[in-house]
Amino acid sequence: MHVFVTGGTGTIGSAVVAELLANGHTVLALARSDKSAQALTDAGAQVLRGQLADLDVLRAGAARCDGVISLAFGSDYSTEAALAQSIAEESAAMAALGEELVGSDRPIVTVSGTPWVPGRAATEADPLPTDGPVGGRGRSVNALLALAARGVRATAVRMPRTVHNEGKGGFAGLLTDQARRTGVSGYPGDGTQRWPAVHALDAAVLFRLALESAPAGTAWHAVADEGDAVRDIATVIGRRLGLPVEAVPQENFGPFGPIFAMDQPATSTHTREVLGWQPTHPSLIADLENIQP
Fold this sequence. Notes:
This is Nucleoside-diphosphate-sugar epimerase. By secondary structure, the protein is of the alpha/beta class.
């Protein structure tokens, strides 16, 4: 399959590109900079220059391929306005890609986060939130999945709060960055809230499986660790960086503060049973040992 990939140089995207190429697919990947283009070329992908906001470029990329994996998302989460802008840009991009595939029965796999459910771990059957700080992502994913009724094999892979590789990435990576800036490995609340996690290389396998065989209109969970206590995550970060570990106000984490403070474990039982996905790479707590002081 010739696959158009956006976000192909990020923590998840670079692993997805490598996974696709290693399993006989070819890749056309969006690149917004010379550096990204070179990284993709070095990996063995073809390059389409453009940005996520270039909707005509996205449509052209989708038109040239047998399927799409949409991973690109903005990198500025410093304010609520910046986060909202990234969500709006992602939503417009997914709508453009989806419309290009209408009536073709070609696959598109997009990414979202696992939902949170009070009192228990979230499952694949639980709906995404459509309000709150990231509600816009839920609405755009739901709109894409609805294209199943219009001849698009649209599916979604829900990612846990931390997608990691070599101690970097995801919400745990944001905690590490914050610790380096402030000199404290902090966590919001009492630290007992749990975050699910997955290694990027395991997540990449699930994206490939969804692209190849997942039925239209379905959602899957790329969850390896059901839920690691945030205080345990912060403890490893603090030890690796030689910093004190303590509770800090959730406001210190900007627009992600309320999300950081939530207990949000998730399972992937259905995903493993139906798609045969089995994570094999290190857990988050083990992988954080790779953090360099």
